[in-house]
Amino acid sequence: MSVPAAINGKEFFELLREDLAAIEREFGRDTVSGVEAITEIGEYLRNGGGKRIRPALLLLAAKLFNYQGRGAIRLGAVVEIIHTATLVHDDIIDEAQTRRGRPAANTQWGNSKCVLAGDWLYMQAFKVAVQERNFRVLDTLIELTQQMVEGELLQMEKLGKLISLDEHFDLIFRKTACLFSVCMRMGAILGGATPEQEESLGQYGRDLGMAFQIVDDVLDLTASEKVLGKPVASDLREGKVTMAVIHALERCTPRERKMIETVVQERAFDGVTHREIIGILERYGSLEAANARALQYATLARNAICSFPDSEFKRALLWAPDFVVAREK
Length: 329
Description:
By secondary structure, the chain is mainly α. The protein has helices at residues 9-30, 36-46, 53-63, 71-94, 105-109, 111-130, 135-158, 165-190, 195-222, 225-228, 234-237, 243-249, 254-266, 274-283, 286-304, 312-326, and strands spanning 98-99, 102-103.
């Protein structure tokens, strides 16, 4: 059986344009509070941009089953609110100064208000999700938030340490790929998928999310600050090692290992430059190895949905892995 051709990016977003606009409106309504600071922070974060790839995945999963209800709009806003809440908390934990080229919310309103605003956003997401009156949706969201909080705590424990590739993959599943997977699963639940179909879509989301985060980590090392909207090599500055760095650590000389270790432990490029670290990664093909692993995950994602009948929504899902691995920011 031949594989249907994927659509292109323009067609992808045109296919979902009206629904994504509806999600944006829902997101705006859902982040209004009687407390002015929460509304201001919510509006600031919503206007910060973002690809909205997570709600797009939820929409496409539901549309595979010809779902017509409003639940996909509501839950699309829910996953974007949860994602936004995680970004607020991440920036506080990482002491970030910028996010998407703008001052991070915590630099504008302070850590205390932003922690509480992030908590409010989490609770608001569940309040909106309850309107679906679907225990499976709520169970899935609870499992998601637990995984994400556990991932953040595990990462904090491993800051400044040279972790293994398995540990790193566990972290990026919890912090990123789990949400991608849940978006696909919730779309499947809305559409009345069989357990097998839901599992396949959840696997697609997991593999796509893994590819997304691996590419994100490579871009953190190689893209410019202007493109990233934050300082280059922020992960190393925060004491985090990612796949390319782990790949190099498994192959480099003791002297080179010590250089990487110094940056990770000191969380700064003081005695070692960013250029020197990139030189080590290039010497061992570590950036290429990370990109190759992202491509493997992208292929796995496409394979996970090969049994679904051809449709414009399936073709959109087949295109998404190409978008994820080819992006430059």
